[in-house]
Amino acid sequence: MYIDGLECSVYDREVFQELRDGGLACVTNTVAFWEDAGETMDEIGRWRDLARENADLITIARTADDIEAAHASGRTAILLGTQNSSPIEDRIRYVELFHDMGLRVMQLTYNNQNAIGGSCYEPHDSGLTRFGREVVREMNRVGMVVDLSHVGERTGIDAIEASEAPVAVTHANARSLYEHARNKGDDLLRALAENGGVIGLATYRNISGPWAESRETWCDMVRRTVDIVGLDHVGIGTDLSRKSGDRELQWMRKGRWTRTTQYGAGSAGNPGKAKPVEFMTSTRDFPALAECLTTHAGFGDEETAKIMGGNWMRFYRHVFKG
Amino acid sequence: MYIDGLECSVYDREVFQELRDGGLACVTNTVAFWEDAGETMDEIGRWRDLARENADLITIARTADDIEAAHASGRTAILLGTQNSSPIEDRIRYVELFHDMGLRVMQLTYNNQNAIGGSCYEPHDSGLTRFGREVVREMNRVGMVVDLSHVGERTGIDAIEASEAPVAVTHANARSLYEHARNKGDDLLRALAENGGVIGLATYRNISGPWAESRETWCDMVRRTVDIVGLDHVGIGTDLSRKSGDRELQWMRKGRWTRTTQYGAGSAGNPGKAKPVEFMTSTRDFPALAECLTTHAGFGDEETAKIMGGNWMRFYRHVFKG
């Protein structure tokens, strides 16, 4: 049972077919980066149509049981997720309403400070704000995944402490293994694990550094991460962006907040969209990744199953209500 | 089992207590007159809090079973309703999303023409528009009550024809019994009945005319309406506006669309808020109304039960899915 904790692909039937080819039981998509409530509702509505039009391949999941059922029926469960809290427009009550509309994962901040907390790219991190504590508590109450991936380190640690439910880093790597603003320090990762959380390790080239060289080296990184946080707290969160082009890249990086060039997880010397790593150009590569975890990195079958999806499944079952 | 098809009260614990004192199993409230999507979400969110704070008295219902369960537990089920389609902001996909958020009744137009159709106060009625047909079909699909109360006559008749499910006039009276723009012609009412719909008769003074004189005369009007549309198609829709003051009245009448004086269902000679009829100052008066239908208007116990709630219940069971 393979689960991808986060993708930002531009989905169409071909990409849905790739999910099936890879045997994915579940993937979290991205319905908002900077979008407000109305724009996110437009996108959720569009996903309802996508799900109806491709009902033989995918279904939108609201519960852990939905994921199991999708898997049993040979389809991939989509979890609706956002990479920002912009959809709730700083209204505590919208958390519950977006949950009603099927949203199951929300990253507290994207690349910039907001009313909830600081981002990993801000020079100073506010920590989790007064409103942020309310939002985390409300997300706990309704059963929505608190995602800390792009969130600043201090805000992230605050959120783990504030959260009654386990929280997630859906798509990042360990900073002690590759130094990058988007990656997470060992202190945060250990606190996350203590709270029952999961980190989805990203195959995204810009935050994998030398580990992206080959499937084997990346599986070595998985092994090293397991040494830091423990076997039960590591999953996959590829950050795959299939069919996402420059228009999407500029929206992700610049949104509506700036007119100047922004590099996101890239840099002036690496300004464009990062090429996908060779061993994960689409979710079709999931079975080979699982194989490599066993044959190369020396994980047993049960251990590999936890990393490839079992840990996410346990986590979802804990966080989602009903 | 008493059901009020429409109220626009400003609810607080005292008004909820009145619902209980009257033995109401269900009432449809009004969460929007002119409000847009975001404002309506604010209001729905506020209602979630109201429902939690007053969980001993009320609960928000999403299904006919929810209404039965509320009644069985000695609480009043609230159906979230709007008196306009402004919340969907002309987006077909928002119908499904507001249904997700619990909206179960939507009036196609309030007092003005909109993209869906004409209002009862417009000099010319566009009829149900191209978009309006899509909205009615979508409301049928998701299971939301199409309310024609303030809707223009031609648009209303079009909507009845376009709708696969029964539709409602939640709060109006028969125009052949009292001539008023807000009331409905016999042709529309007969078409409504043929389609399995229900009209909720209003105790609102401005549209009841001389029938408002006493409980007995109003029950005579019920009898006359039953003669027109049949016993299975008449219910109650008081249009009660408990604790609603001038601020609410001006918002209902003027919204954001005009700076000039508007009279709504009143007139220059009757400009203020209409005094509630003496026999329906709050829902506490429901049992006496039921009694009067039997003792004065000569309805049998089963007939009275249909008018006081049974017909709405059958209608809701048909329209709501799941």
UniProtKB/TrEMBL annotation, chains A, B:
Protein known as:
Membrane dipeptidase
What would be an example GO MF term here? Answer: metallodipeptidase activity
- Pfam families listed in its UniProt record: Peptidase_M19 (PF01244)
Biological classification of the source: Bacteria, Bacillati, Actinomycetota, Actinomycetes, Streptosporangiales
Q: GO terms for biological process?
A: proteolysis
Q: Which InterPro entries match?
A: Metal_Hydrolase, Pept_M19
Query: Gene3D superfamilies attached here?
Result: Metal-dependent hydrolases
